[in-house]
Specification:
The complex is a heterodimer of chains A (113) and B (114). With 113 residues, chain A is mainly beta. Chain A is 0% helix and 50% strand. The chains are: A mainly beta (113), B mainly beta (114).
Chain lengths: 113, 114
């Protein structure tokens, strides 16, 4: 257990539905990252927060995706109108300034039918 | 960030040393070599990082060649629990802005066997 938690761990949804994932980082960590991982590939960066500010979004993050981090604590990642290509593991990581190690949560596995 | 090349898979007998190579021939002078691993159905886990000197911690040793174009992660006494995908990542080590995001390749799948 790294101290980063994600909920739910698994989500099965039908194409076209909206889903929301939650990440609770280590409490003193001010930076939070979302990554997506498809089968057989390494994780790919999606977006990054410094406290409550979203500072970068990857080209992978289409306009159907939105992420928030209110009050610089937990973060949510919402996918609207899900597509089968959204099926993946969604990973959250947090880090404190001056440290080198990112702490990853266990991930949320999304399956879109 | 410099690109890395790793073998797709390796086997190691339990109790033996596992030596995982990584090529990073385009590494810049201010880029560090990081290693993470991902055990099945878990998030990646930090192992070790280094700039040019060899590094050792409780998990592993990192050997970086003098020209810094390649490195080797050494697990001195591999156990079944070390079976995982190991990622070698090269990036600037500063926690400013997006420099701290990680760019993963496909890694090396290490299978430790009895």
């Amino acid at each position: 257990d790294t101290g980063v938690s994600q909920d739910p761990r698994h989500k099965i949804t039908k194409r076209g539905q909206n889903v929301t994932f939650r990440c609770d980082p280590i409490s003193e960590h001010n930076r939070l990252y979302w990554y997506r991982q498809t089968l057989g590939q390494g994780p790919e960066f999606l977006t990054y927060f410094q406290n409550e500010a979203q500072l970068e979004k990857s080209r992978l993050l289409s306009d159907r995706f939105s992420a928030e981090r209110p009050k610089g604590s937990f973060s949510t990642l919402e996918i609207q109108r899900t597509e089968q290509g959204d099926s993946a593991m969604y990973l959250c990581a947090s880090i404190q300034d001056s440290y080198n190690e990112q702490f990853f949560g266990p991930g949320t596995r999304l399956t879109v039918l | 960030d410099a690109k890395t090349t790793q073998p797709p898979s390796m086997d190691c007998a339990e109790g033996r040393a596992a030596n995982l190579p990584c090529n990073h021939s385009t590494i810049s002078g201010n880029e560090y070599v990081y290693w993470y691993r991902q055990i099945h159905s878990q998030g990646p886990q930090y192992i070790i990082h280094g700039l040019k000197n060899n590094e050792t911690n409780e998990m592993a040793s990192l050997i970086i060649t003098e020209d810094r174009k390649s490195s080797t992660l050494i697990l001195p006494h591999a156990t079944l629990r070390d079976t995982a995908v190991y990622y070698c990542i090269v990036r600037v080590s500063r926690n400013t802005g997006t420099a701290s995001k990680l760019t993963f390749g496909t890694g090396t799948r290490l299978q430790v066997t009895l």
